[in-house]
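Notebook entry, structure prediction.
Reason for the run: the old model in the group folder had no record of what sequence produced it. Starting over properly, with the input documented here first.
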Amino acid sequence: MKTQNVSRTVLAAGAGAVLAATALLYVPELVGQGPPAPPGPAERATIAAHAGAQAALPDLAALITDREKWLRAHPDDDASWAALGTAYTERGTRIGDVRDYPRAERALKRSLAERPAARGNVDAQLGLGALAGARGDWRSAKEWGERVRKAEPGRWPAYPVLIDAYNGLGDYEAAGKATEKLEELHAGAVVRARASLTYRNRGWREDADAAALDAAALAETDADKAASLARLGDLAWERGEAAEALARYGAALRLVRDHGPSLAGRARALAGLDRPDEALRDWRAALARLPLPEYVLEAGELYEAMGLDGDARALYERLRTGTWVRAEVALGLLDADHGAPAAAVKRLRAEWARGHRSVAVADALGWALYRAGQPKEALEYAKRATDEGLRSALFAYHRGEIERALEQHGPARRHLAEALRINPRFSPLLAPKAAEAVAALGEPSDELPQELRPEKSEKASGTAEKASGAAEKTSGAAEKDSGAEKVSEADGDGVPGEPRVPSGTP
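New structure, fully documented this time:
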């Protein structure tokens, strides 16, 4: 599919890490007197959060209900306001409901009103960082995360917030350093999941897969294990291993039947395995469960590839008119390929100017510029996207087409072929176009480039010899002139350098 897939479970893990920072502050309220009872839904969510894990969505909803009830009677409890705001963020991220984000913001700001940051309210600051990341405001996420790191360098939940922010800003070196620090401070599934993402962005595929396997093994809840299996599916899909990806997504869905990222991933894999009807079934389920902008675009392009243009147009219109967060790349690619490339350039230039310079934004901006008839400028962004480290079939395809427009046939052939090597079914619309472009470029010529041909070299050698002979003649003439000057100098009154005085001069 066209958009570069990064599972939203990664961001949910970040919100869960922040929730863990406040999780045990109110556990005693959830436990009655006497012999311990089995944990209820709200307490299970608290226990999961303390471990840095994702809670089951019904348990997370129970935790939100519990905190809302508590705060009606105890409105000055800053810790509960922070926990409630962070739980809203996690729920909104995991179900794609942007209505939870304003609720989260109100709760977190209320927490800071009850106990300001200057008095040590770190949890609300972490919550605001996670919320900014969920909304795609990477600069704000970075600022909140760095405030907490400065105040409490050992507070591990700050680092998932920072890793997401640095990745969104395109600062992959800083993201790597933050990942290393997180690994020093904490262990568990959330840490290995972040490490997997960092390795993937650097192009270290085996390391990314190993870290994701670790995350799945260390997961303490079904939700967390499903997220890790979905991440393994994403990695397999990006390597072009559709059958392996399908198995990973299937395992995740056996744990969490309606896991949104796994439904979307399985739809991709089924399309790649030439099972389009089943793929459409899963896309419909994924959009009902987790309506993300990139999913809407991918589903629309599968409909288009199948000749179902009316359904495709309906999804494209849904994407254009919906209320979304973190939708600039999907909207830019939609406009670039489906009727409004100039609008795509404007949108993505604005995103770049905000400092959001991830490889995904660089790739989308380069592609929009190419589609708008500016391939020379487009190539600079395409190079940035492909040279950072991430191995993406989509990025390689975009760069190859841009180079083809610039008549750079060798690089174009190389990058278009690379796209098909990485994942021959990376998009139902674009993979066939990549194959056509490679065929149109043909095989590389067996002849050497003109400047390297032997006959040209011999001709160049002859020219050089002639030039050398001419230089020697010039040198000989110069020597004669030099000798004449010496004779002239010697004919004077014995003083070198003085002019000769003609005979007969008084």
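Summary: Residues 23-32, 477-506 have pLDDT under 50 and may be disordered.
The old model has been moved to the deprecated folder.
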